[in-house]
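Email to the structure team, subject: Molybdopterin-guanine dinucleotide biosynthesis protein B model.

Hi all, the expression group asked for a predicted structure before they design truncation constructs. Nothing fancy, just the tokens so they can compare against earlier work. One-line instruction: predict Molybdopterin-guanine dinucleotide biosynthesis protein B, return tokens.
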Amino acid sequence: MVRPVIFQIVGFQNSGKTTFVNKLLQKLNENGINVVTIKHHGHGGVPQLNEGKDSAQHVKSGATASLVEGEGRLILHAERQNWSLEEKIQLLSIFSPDVILIEGHKHEKFPKAVIVRRDDDIQLIKTLTGIEVIFYWEQELQDLRTFNKPSYHVDQSLGMDWIVQYLKNQLINS
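Reply from the structure team: attached below.
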């Protein structure tokens, strides 16, 4: 693999992906791993912005993108019909991250962790490629051995440790 290492956290809506990603980010930060994230807004519609701000007005007036910076905070507002995941990855690569963590985009080809909340969610595992580890919510789902992947309860710190070690190994080998 070539830096940055790309890793996905996927699951159905309301499976706990964002909470999981936030905990993972803290753990990766504690381990000195520089991470940027891509979040797929899969709930329909465009993400909310403050339409009254100058950058939004610039885009509304015809700019493809508007960048605002102040006291170290950088905000990029860009609009066009479609953005491929590859374009998003390219854009974030400018920050020279060790890892790009993607929340969502479940059918992409990158290595991933899958979160299953209910028994019905197991069907998702059967449709995905690149699964490295599985996280479950309900104790009765813990027997996921048929998938031949490590599996952990979402609150089990061993699972987070597994991902950290996996990413460290990928960084060493990149």
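The chain is about 30% helix and 25% strand. The chain has one domain: 5-49+84-172. Ping us if the truncation boundaries need rechecking.
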